[in-house]
Design goal:
Layout lengths: L3 H13 L22 E3 L9 H5 L5 E4 L8 E5 L8 H5 L5 E3 L14 E4 L25
Antiparallel strand pairs: 1-4, 2-3, 3-5
């Protein structure tokens, strides 16, 4: 050690600085908007075309029809998914979207299977048309 004073000066400079790292699990980080995380399935929009299943390069998606109605559920194998979002891009009815949830680590591999149950589609509201020759009812003021 030729110049110990140089090392002491560097030591004191680093002791007084703020840390350069984030204390991650304790302080959550803000992710950029384009981050790819967990795939979210919106069963009300799904028509069961299976384009997402065919386009998935990792074969991580299964779309099932649990009953006689035209409602569908999705099963995602998160341990196989590469989070490329190809399924989201190819879905014609926007039944899949990307969330920014990246904390997906599990101790048990069975917990990496995400099942989105089928939800019944909301009923469509019927709009009454006025009979021919009659005026439409007045709107309340």
């Amino acid at each position: 050690m030729k110049k110990p004073g140089k090392m002491l000066a560097e030591l004191f400079r680093n002791v007084t600085k703020e840390p350069a790292t984030i204390q991650y699990p304790y302080v959550k980080i803000e992710l950029p908007g384009a981050s790819r995380g967990l795939i979210v399935f919106i069963s009300e929009n799904c028509i069961g075309c299976n384009i997402c299943v065919r386009d998935c390069p990792a074969d991580a998606i299964k779309i099932n029809k649990p009953g006689e109605e035209k409602i569908f559920e999705a099963v995602f194998n998160l341990d196989e998914c590469i989070f490329c979002a190809q399924c989201v891009i190819s879905c014609p009815k926007k039944a899949l979207s990307i969330s920014t949830d990246i904390e997906l680590a599990q101790l048990d591999r069975a917990n990496l299977i995400k099942v989105y149950p089928a939800k019944p589609k909301p009923p469509k509201e019927k709009v009454e048309k006025p009979a021919e020759g009659k005026a439409a009812p007045a709107a309340p003021a």
